[in-house]
Specification:
By secondary structure, the protein is an alpha+beta fold. The protein contains 8 helices and 9 strands.
């Protein structure tokens, strides 16, 4: 089941392109740069993350999309032992989706699998597998010179839960805020049992009711 995300910003901005058709090329270029910048800022804001939920039959799918800084505290490829340890710990924690997402007991939901994706994981794997390679050392130094440019790394996780009584699924408690204190706000969209909605969660309000 493919989740449809809400794209109000795009629909509101499109008509504006026709309001000033006589704008100069330089003005249009400046507008495009500003729009791209604000779009990027809106899509990747530290402290904020997105969560999509969908129920299909007895399977509930959860998609978490967060800036890496919310989860590991940095967004560049790990280069120190401490950063590698932080990333490994975060991956281990994220794999336990049944601890991070608690459905109401009557639904009888159990996590089946979790898939974690991030550019940080690929780079971390490469570094671990070439620790003593002199060529790798040269690559690592070159990589460190460009670390400052890597400021928008995300971590995405897809969870699959199976619920014995999906008709009784009416609530989800999110434990992400306690687990990852840098995460301050979660934008949630859901499609559950014919109902759809959107809600913002915080540490003070970590419960979604469907």
């Amino acid at each position: 089941m493919r989740l449809q995300t809400i794209a109000l910003t795009a629909s509101l901005l499109t008509p504006l392109l026709f309001i000033v058709p006589t704008a100069s090329a330089s003005e249009r270029h400046t507008h495009d740069e500003e729009h791209h910048y604000h779009h990027q800022q809106g899509a990747h804001v530290h402290g904020m993350a997105k969560l999509n939920l969908a129920l299909e039959g007895k399977e509930t799918h959860i998609e978490l999309d967060s800036p890496a800084a919310n989860i590991v505290g940095f967004e560049h490829a790990p280069s120190s032992q401490a950063e590698h340890a932080a990333l490994d710990k975060a991956v281990g924690t994220l794999q336990h989706g049944d601890h991070l997402f608690q459905f109401n007991g009557a639904a009888g939901c159990r996590m089946e699998k979790a898939m974690i994706r991030s550019a940080l994981l690929g780079e971390a794997h490469d570094e671990h597998s070439h620790d003593h390679d002199p060529h790798h050392e040269a690559d690592r130094h070159e990589h460190e010179e460009h670390r400052e440019k890597e400021t928008h790394s995300d971590i995405k996780v897809v969870y699959h839960f199976e619920c014995r009584q999906p008709s009784k699924l009416d609530q989800l408690t999110v434990e992400l805020f306690e687990t990852f204190p840098a995460m301050e706000q979660l934008e949630v969209q859901y499609v559950i049992a014919g109902k759809q909605g959107a809600v913002e969660l915080t540490a003070r309000n970590p419960v979604v009711k469907f």
